[in-house]
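G., the chain you wanted modeled:
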Amino acid sequence: MIRHLLKLVWRRKRANSLLIIEIFASFLVVFAVSTLAAAAVMRWRTPLGFDYHNVWTGRVSFPPRSAMRAEDAPSQRAAVEAMLREARTLGPVESAAADSMPPYGTGSWVSSVSVDGHQLDTTRDDVSDDYAKTMRIPILRGRWFSPDDDASGEKPIIIDADVARALFGSVDAAVGKMIGSGEKDDSRVVGVIAPFRMGGEFSPEKTYMAFDRISLSAPAKVNPEHGIQAVGGFDRHVPRYLMIRVRPGTAADFEETLIKRLHDVAPEYPIRIQHMEQTRIFMNRIYAAPAVVLAIVAAFLIIMVALGLSGVLWQTVTRRTREIGLRRAMGATGGQVHRQILAEVALMSTGALTAGVIVVAQLPIVASSQVVTPASFAFGLAVSLATIYAITLLCGMYPSWLAGRVQPAEALHYE
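Predicted structure as tokens:
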């Protein structure tokens, strides 16, 4: 029976080719949407490694880095330190810290580190000693930065658990080890934190985060060539962001008070405050926009395929009245004819989906595991196959029902 149905589909290959191509394209689009949706849901459920609630970000209006002068670095560092000190005196403020690239920001800094010849690209950030307290970062092993690091003579670094496992094999083995950073001095790991996803809920699960220390109170040396201060002997940019955690229930009008107090401390450097919860919403919308657009395109494409499939099958049933009537005259029941048409639809769908599966099977090979995980790939494949089969069979229900109602006598009147 299947061989007979394959012959019927093959003999009408010209009429069915366009429909098979549409089913193939629909499968690819549905697969992309479902895979992205599965990956997004899995990422959303993964812990961030920090708490964004009740955190306000203050951006200090320093000149662009290309226009910064070396002689201005000490005064800028002093201004940031004075703003932090003033913010901590306010009642609604729980803690405050300096940061170079806050979470949910548009910028990033990627640097390669190495251990025993094994290199790893890490996302880097410069933060002050109170950053872990302000962002409520879980420390798994070791400690966070402290003022004692000013006199240690070593460059401290804090890595997340993903970096520790990638470079040292486990979290326990990382503390106290040296990491080569391609700079003049290597860094000693003083602490390991939970995986830190500074890009937010839709960022890759493994960001490979590493934090360097900013000390605003240590004596600074100025690099005349780059306009960068060296704190405790290590080059550091002047931090441009203040991370301020306010107490739950803080009134919105406190923002005006905070800006005024900070402006009084350093009037030459204006500051703009943003709530991290609002920044989070904005960035998540940017991440979600391509998936929404792709979902809309997929919906329209599926609707077009459904309408085209229904129309083609309806026209096919009308043209095959003589064939169907002859089969009924030879003893076939209406249910058998109905199932035959649905089987032909299923065979066309299977042909298109087989080609589609061959194409998408290459994705895990060419794509990074950060983009397509095995779980999201399997989910997307299963959902797309089920969706296309369901739509095509549903569209074939009514035309096949009409075919089952054809009477043998109708074939005699067919011209």
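The chain has 13 helices and 14 strands.

Shout if anything looks off.
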